[in-house]
Protein 1
Amino acid sequence: MNVLELQSVSKSFWIPDEHRNTVREHLFAAFRPRPLRELRVLESVSLTLRRGEALGLMGANGSGKSTLLKILCGIYVPDAGRVVTHAPVTPILELGIGWNPELDAVDNVYLIGTLMGLSLAELRRDVDEILDFAELRPFARMHLKHYSSGMAARLAYAVAFRAVRDVLILDEILAVGDAGFKQRCEERYRQLRARGHSTIIVSHDPRIISTFCDRALLLERGRFVMDGPAPEVAATYLAHLTRVERTE
Amino acid sequence: MTQPLLPVADEPAASAVVGARGQDASPRVAWAALAWTLVRTDFKARYHGTFSGFAWALLKPAGIFLVLMVVFSFIFPDPTYKLQLIVGLFLWDFFAESTKTGLASLHAKAFLFKKMRVPLWVLVLASIANPLITLAVFSVVIVGFLSLAGAPPSPQGLALFLVYCAALTLLVAGFSLAASVLFLRYRDLNQVWDVMAQAGFFVAPIIYPLGIVPERLHFYFYLWPPTPIIEFSRAALVSHTVPSLIGHVYLALEVIAAVTIGVLVMRRYGPRAAEYV
């Protein structure tokens, strides 16, 4: 059974030659044409994620991975095509979650936790364990603006791992933290898989895709160019990268 | 010592909405819990989590009231002027503060909806909560002030005042829904609104009684939404009269128009908000 489907999704961004971001700029240039350049990021992309499946997503920088993930998570709206979800999606994009730097870790956990669908009762019960998982209990009352990027990312993983109800989307999984934290993340990830959760993992690391995914897709200039067993796609991506480096 | 593994989530939520183009891919969020958390964390961030911080923030409107009362009491010797002024000024303070906060609400919370699907309307409406708390405190102050001045409002007057406060909140909500999402595209909208609000302070009969304006112009003054709210509140609390039915109809139309425009603009531009931050 599919839990998530993308059907012929396309997405473009229209880049103006001249930026107009204010009322003043719009008023003073109301009668001056503003040429727009189309930046096609995704072109008729389709994918399916089955229940319990771990899908890897690989592609060079600028291939459209981030936009694809944002469409999957409902952050961006596709220009064409359909996104069909049969299960709630919990994302960690671009190595983190949006934190309020003026709040401490506990309040941020409450804020993001409720956004991810946790109830206040669940948060009250589990906030200490979330902080322990991130190894941040001693810094629980420190404002996030004083956290390092690694600490913030660890907290993001801890909240998302706790909040996930069905589909988990991880952008650059295990790219943060020390060996101990990575090991706990891997253990938690396997635990989720064993419970039947579906996951999408985006990574440049062939080892991660081969180890943690059943199937993988290779994205190139907004199109899928390969869909197959994770180790094969990872090997192709690696070979492609090596070829590009030699050419350069 | 082994580090803990997290407890697993409770039973998976029922299937999310099946949809196309901008479907609900997020977990089923309990809006009430989210709104409460937003209000609580906003309060903490604004007032450092203390009631003394909150009380400190009340000093500004209270100080303005004192200054205006001292200055304009000489110009307008009406014995009820002080009472009229306090009602008008505190309602205006809520209007100015909440529209300013509401306009900037999505920009201020962009860190949330850039990386997760978030119901934008909850972010916008929650941002009005803190000015609303201030209005509630001021309402108690107003009633206390009127009682001390020997003119306590009647129960009917208080009920009407609550209705007008609700109407003002709806007006602000409609404005904020539209302005917050437009502010992501027009980054000087806050400056434009600042100028408009400053002019609006003098259009609304806050420091002067509307009676000094020729009656044939009153209709135009009433088109500025804070005017009917302030005038009607004064009638209910200070003059102990009930404004006309036609006045209430106009006010209701203004509220309906503001909310409708707010919802329509949010529905039109909200789905692509994340692309503009």
Note: The mean pLDDT of chain B is 86.
Protein 2
Amino acid sequence: MFGQGLNFGGIAEAPFVPVTEQIQWLVVAAGGGSGSNAGGGGGAGGLRTSAGPSGGGCSAEGLGTIAGGRTYTITVGSGGAAGGANGDNSSIAATSFNITSTGGGAGRPYNTAGTSGGSGGGGNRFSGASGGAGTSCQGYAGGNGGDLAGGGGGGGAGAAGTNAVSSPRKGGNGGNGVQVGITGTSTYYAGGGAGGSWYGTAPAGNAGQGGGGGGSTDGTPNTGGGAGGDSRSGGSGVVILRISTSNYSGNVTGAPTVTIDGSFTIITFTGSGSYIHAKI
Amino acid sequence: MAHFAKLNENNEVIQVLVVNNDVILNADNTESEYKGKVFLNSLFGNATWIQTSYNGNIRKQYAGVGYTYDETNDVFIMPQPFASWTLDLNYDWQPPTPYPTDGELYKWNEENQTWDSI
């Protein structure tokens, strides 16, 4: 029984104290892929956090409560494939503590609009195809593509992607991400991908700060950055927990990176895994 | 990083996740797809997981949600862009009429089955 010392055959064990703690957390979904043929940039993965502003212009969310003996299952989404696939969701899943961020929308090929997602994908160049919508409190919309212009920029967690422009011809810019200081260092996450260039005869847009890909560049891994047009893949997501070192169990799977910041332990999951809040 | 695609009963990709390389390494530092599948099943419950390569080094190309896994040929196939397009021997979708090679720009018109100048 939690909270009680155990006694087996007269040998007393140290009491196991159930530790309930309010912790900081960050969940960034994966960025979307970019489309071909002056395709739109990939939208950034949705960003939700207690440690700073969440995506889409929202305030920080509440702290997460972790309790002794519980398992916290971490899902880290993979970047959306080139050619128009959304990024995958990232999440923390446990009893009473469930957070899911939505994968970034994709910039699509041919004459199609960007898809919706955590942040929206940019529209393709044809007929001014529109950017996809972002998800409330996770990210912004993608920009529109434009005939004789290029692909729209992918939306970011901190700003919308911009529309492609026709004079001078240029792809839309990816929206910037959001700065979060959960690790002890303020870092940008979830930038949108650049809109693709007009058949290479004009510049692509600029990458969104926070891992967004520039022209024909993948999104940066573990940032949730959207892919830069054309035909690249989005950056994978990341999940970070900040726990008092005195309460950290060390009981993890999935090979996360564990660092110390003052009196806190930072668990950075760049791949899926788990944390069990109980001593091994 | 290693990447794994989750398939539904129709071999369609419904999720793609990241797994750290350390999880799938054998003692001799070679990668084991089997270890990745076992790990993911332990984490999320039993499902069909197939490894995919972000750089497209295996199974033709990096898989995304909506792609299909062709078990016979061990490749991932992109979603069909238009109903009239067909798969070629390299598992790429091709239009009924090839893209014009006159240097002009065109977009596909599915209704008329033509490449329209833009």
Note: DSSP finds two helices and nine strands in chain B.
